[in-house]
Structure formats: C-alpha cells, structure tokens
C-alpha cells in the first residue's frame, strides 16, 4: 500500500470564510499517484473545519447565518472560554461543521457525488492555519 501526505496552508482575510479546496485536493491525488484508495482531509486547528457540500453562494451564506444563530460571535462575555480569548464561538462552530472529510479515490479521481465540493471552513481567521491531506491506497 502506498501513502501520501501533504499540508495545505490557508490564511483568510476575514474572521469567518469558506474556501473551496476541491482543486487543491484533486492536485494532491494526482501527485500521490494513487488510483484506488482513500483521501483524508482534516483541519489541524480547533477553530477550522473541513466539510463537503454544494458550492453555491446562497448556501454558503446560509451556513454563516445558521452558525451565527447557534453560536453568535458577540457578545464575547456570553462564553466562559472568552475569559482568556475571544473565539469560543469559533470552537462551537467547528464542532457543528466537523473536523474532516474522507473521500474515496476511484480510477485516480476523487469519487464525489453530483455537486459535492470540499470546503475549508474558517471560524477564527486572519492567521495561518493548515489542513492535512493523507492519501492511502494503490
């Protein structure tokens, strides 16, 4: 069995953002040379997420509205965690959106369903963070 590992780095200009990383992951699959296997993509920071969904601007805006209702950023004083920091909402948002995605590789390509795209979700941005890509297979 072969394996491939790569770190992708992101620094968003906004505190919260959603970045379509599907082309980056497709490039990793090509680099790996693996044609049949699994691709793990996971955020390596507790205030960021990797998830799969439709690349539709209205839906991405809906995610933002939904998450802000569940865990509003302000007032900062509503969270005990914010005694030391101001990002408790980002931790909660990450918990809802998830840490990772695992995608099958078939015939040398990501085996995604119709409209599925891979996203990096940032909930406490404006600083450099990484995503791990680990591919195993033949």
Strand content: 35-45%
Instruction: Return Rg in Å.
Output: 16 Å
As a percent range, the share of helical residues equals 25-40%
Uncertain runs: none
CATH class: Mainly Beta
Tell me about the largest β-sheet.
5 strands, antiparallel
Strands ordered across the widest β-sheet? 1-8-3-5-6
Structurally, how many domains make up the residues? 1
**CATH fold assignment:** Jelly Rolls
CATH H-level superfamily: YjbQ-like
Global shape: elongated
Number of helices: 3
**Kindly, what is the distance between the CA atoms of the first and last residues, rounded to a whole number of angstroms?**
5 Å
Named at the architecture level, the CATH assignment is: Sandwich
How much is the average pLDDT?
Answer: 98
Structure write-up:
The mean pLDDT is 98. Helices cover 25% and strands 38% of the residues. A five-stranded antiparallel sheet has the order 1-8-3-5-6, covered by helices on one side. The chain has a three-stranded antiparallel sheet with strand order 2-7-4. The protein has 138 residues and is an alpha+beta fold. The chain is elongated. The protein has a single domain, classed as YjbQ-like (Jelly Rolls, Sandwich).
Secondary structure topology:
Layout: E1 2-10, E2 17-20, H1 22-32, E3 36-43, E4 48-54, H2 57-70, H3 88-97, E5 100-106, E6 109-110, E7 116-122, E8 129-137
Antiparallel strand pairs: 1-8, 2-7, 3-5, 3-8, 4-7, 5-6
């Amino acid at each position: 069995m072969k394996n491939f590992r790569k770190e992708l780095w992101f620094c968003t200009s906004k505190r919260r953002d959603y970045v379509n990383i599907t082309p980056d992951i497709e490039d990793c699959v090509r680099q790996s040379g693996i044609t049949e296997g699994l691709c793990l993509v996971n955020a390596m920071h507790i205030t960021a997420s990797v998830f799969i969904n439709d690349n539709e601007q209205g839906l991405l805006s809906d995610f933002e509205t939904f998450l802000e209702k569940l865990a509003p950023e302000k007032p900062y004083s509503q969270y005990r965690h914010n005694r030391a920091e101001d990002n408790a909402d980002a931790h909660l948002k990450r918990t809802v959106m998830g840490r990772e995605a695992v995608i099958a590789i078939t015939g040398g390509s990501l085996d995604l369903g119709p409209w599925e795209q891979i996203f990096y979700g940032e909930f406490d941005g404006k600083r450099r963070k990484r995503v791990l890509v680990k591919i195993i297979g033949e």
